[in-house]
Amino acid sequence: MQNVKNLGEYKEHVREALDNEFQRQAIDRFAQAYPVGRAKAFEGMDVEGLIAEIAAAKDDSIRRMGELYEQFKREAEKAGIHVHLAKNAGEANEIIASIAKKTGSKKIVKSKSMTAEETLLNHHLEGEGLEVTETDLGEWIIQMRHEGPSHMVMPAIHLSRDQVAGLFSQVTGKDQSNEIEKLVKVARRELRQRFVEADMGISGANFAIAETATIGLVTNEGNARLCTTLPRVHVALCGLDKLTPTLHDALRVLRALPRNATGQTLTSYTTWIHGPNEDNAAPGGKKEMHIVFLDNGRTALAEDPEFRQVLRCIRCGACANVCPVYRMVGGHEYGHIYIGAIGLILTYFFHGRDKAKHLVLNCINCQACKAVCAAGIDLPSLIKRVYARILDETGHDIDSTLLSMVMRNRKLFHGLLRSARFAQKPFGVKKGEKQKGNFIRHLPMMFAKQHAFRELPAVADKPFRDIFPKIQPKVENPRYTVAIFGGCAQDFLYPEQLEAMVHTFADRGVAVDFPLQQTCCGLPLMMMGERKAEKEVAEQNIHAIDPAKYDYIICSCPSCASHLKQYPEIFGGGDSDGLLADRFADKVIDISSFLNDVLEMSADDFEQGGPKATYHAPCHLCRGLNVHDAPREILAKGGYEYVPCKEEEVCCGFGGSYSVKFPEISQQILTNKLDNIEATGAEVLVTDCPGCVMQIRGGLAKRGSDVVVRHMSEVLAERRKK
Amino acid sequence: MSNTERIELFTAKAEAVSAVVKRLPSMKEATDYVVDLCGAKEACQLLISGCGEPLSQKAEDLCEIKQDKVVAAPNLSQGHYDALAKACDKNGFVCKRDGLREHLAGIDIGFTLCQGAIAETGSVVLDSDSEETRLATMISEIHVAAVTVDSIEQDFYGVEKKLAELIAKTPSYTAFITGASRTADIERVLALGVHGPLELHVLLLDEV
């Protein structure tokens, strides 16, 4: 990843990673086991409350970072600890090398430290002629392979036992079997000898408690305890973001860290160290202790109102554990040094734009990382903001400039969508009999090869905006007056989904309106980092649909809905548009919640005894809008026999323009989804999002599957008692 | 949470991370437990974990240091230590309370008295300011940790005050120990005893 020059090269790396069958299966197994283990570890705890507490406490520490550093330094020096502050990675490495020189240290043992990975410390020390041994088993393995970690908590998750056995055979000069138990014992003996000989031990720090100048180290293997016990010199390298005011703050984070990382209640060893402790190998019987605090952009980040929350990260690695993209390509293609969602962001701030610019595109925006983050960091939106910053710094590329120009002009945009119906003519339209959907017969050249894993939908003959005036019901004394926010996909590709929705309300006392001035929600613009255009379309929408006139703004595309809910953030409150955006966002509701929770439709409203149906939860519904129960409940009330699907809330791989940019990854994520759907034995797959319909229907049609894909509004309209 | 509930929760959580938990009346029974355990260990083999595998010459050399079965108990009171040393002597084991750097190849049992325990995580809290205490709990094949039942707290916040006192000393070194040393770094397969003990036994004592 380090030396990728352009997007083409990056995609090449990604393709190679996708071909690494072992790595993919290893991470896949973990991805399936992790949510179960995590849930068990947090059982009976108020997880959301804990996350909110951690976020608030970390925000406070970030605000006071400079002050906490001074306090730590004062207390540390009283205790005889040498404290250093390094402006950047190079400075940190030089400080540590000079400590080695001053203390006459030649051999160094290291306990795992992501901060040392960030500064590439080993390279520097080895360049100075020092012998450095990583003692965490996974880190030792990758050190010998001259690789970086592929996961923050499980650095060697990409390697097989055979690869490790081969490596150990080289190191020991003896043939090793591939039995894991035995390999671990070999490492134990080999590394024990390194501990015995070491002059200096280097550790990271999970916590730096300012009040008492105590560092906290969290490990499973116990190597940190040996690194900080045997050698006569101890150097801890610690990011400024690890500073925390009190022991209580550290204990609070410790409640979440191992649970969120690996589903452990606590790691085997948590070690609290303050001052130069007893060391019988040192002159005077006391260790020499140094702490090197690393800034490397952290002070600047702490002052950045938009991005400071990034420093809340407690390095649990959970954002990688749940990421569908990481699951396919592994860590080396999903982060520069830090991996996972947080890695995409940190790469930009710690390692620079060049390292970040391609990586940052590889986020599908499924929000799984945001939902799992122990510190409540809004990772997906920060990733997009990093992208927007990179574009602002380097210039927007012609595609996205063009598209944002088009989208800002609703008439032009909709005109182009209409004419797409004619543009697709040369490719032909075929009817997907099984799927009740129309597909493009031949894919246009630019899509042909990599996109052949799914059928693509044809543009409808008539958009919904042309149909609506004819089907708008007349309702006397309505219970509710609602506006439909159609979204481009439903308006122009799947108008039948919106039509079905109107029919479902028809005689339920709901007056429906479809304001014609509405345009794209702006999500695709956000995905492309076009923030100015994103705000302009938002302005058009809040003026097109006056929230004062409606009880609800119903949106049967959850991607649009969750983006509409974010309008207040786009405007940042304040002026009249900001207030309007607040009121607008308040009224937005998804179709399942409206039917189930507001209209309180019941089994009596629908014909019962329908077919077996399974469900796919769109990312922007279950996580974006936090809606979990309503769709399953209304589906069952609608007369369907609901059969749950494995990994129902995992992304289908669509992600809007993402599937166009990274079709191979999209295809692989979709394959898992389709396998799980077919395994349920259901006749119908129901989902709430037109994008998911497009992806899953296209994939199943390509497979020739008998499972029919339908939007929620369609399946309910079909069984509605008239 | 009552005392009994705390003991039950501690036992369940510690056993979940493969610790062996035993309830015993006092240090006398704890001493017997340690001596029995050392006697039964690997049917009197002297081999330390890993020494049976093919190793590099340097690592192999370290294996040859070990000649006797060794029990280390660095933080016991003089009276308790004397009783343990006497029992070890009778069984032909070496009993030590200091000089553990001479045994870096490994010892059989490290026996410590802990200052507290956390029920919710199944952890013991150990004042490890002394290097000998740290080594006894790290280079041993089996760590036997004794703790009184009345020092088991429900959660982190319960031990916070005691921990704050322990870490306020200058210098200080304190450990939460939860199960044996472990790794899952190769193919996520759990293996116990990577750098530290292969087994953790926790003895819950009514009194010391």
TrEMBL record, chain A:
Q: Which GO terms describe its molecular function?
A: 4 iron, 4 sulfur cluster binding; metal ion binding; oxidoreductase activity
Q: Does the keyword Metal-binding apply?
A: yes
List the keywords (alphabetical). 4Fe-4S, Electron transport, Iron, Iron-sulfur, Metal-binding, Repeat, Transport
The cross-references to Pfam families, in alphabetical order and at most eight, read: CCG, Fer4_8, LUD_dom
Regions crossing the membrane: none
Which residues belong to any copy of the 4Fe-4S ferredoxin-type domain?
303-333
One Gene Ontology term from the biological process aspect of the record: lactate metabolic process
Q: Kindly give the SUPFAM superfamilies that the UniProt entry links to this protein.
A: alpha-helical ferredoxin, NagB/RpiA/CoA transferase-like
**InterPro entries on file:** 4Fe4S_Fe-S-bd, 4Fe4S_Fe_S_CS, Cys_rich_dom, FTHF_cligase-like_sf, Helical_ferredxn, LUD_dom, LutB/LldF, NagB/RpiA_transferase-like
NCBIfam families per record: quin_L_LdhH
User: What name does the UniProt record give this protein?
Assistant: (Fe-S)-binding protein
> Which species is this record about?
Oceanidesulfovibrio indonesiensis
TrEMBL record, chain B:
Chain ranges passing through the membrane: none
What the entry lists under Pfam families is as follows:
LUD_dom
Q: Where is the LUD domain?
A: 7-205
**Could you tell me what this protein is called?**
Lactate utilization protein
Q: Which organism is it from?
A: Oceanidesulfovibrio indonesiensis
Taxonomic path: Bacteria, Pseudomonadati, Thermodesulfobacteriota, Desulfovibrionia, Desulfovibrionales
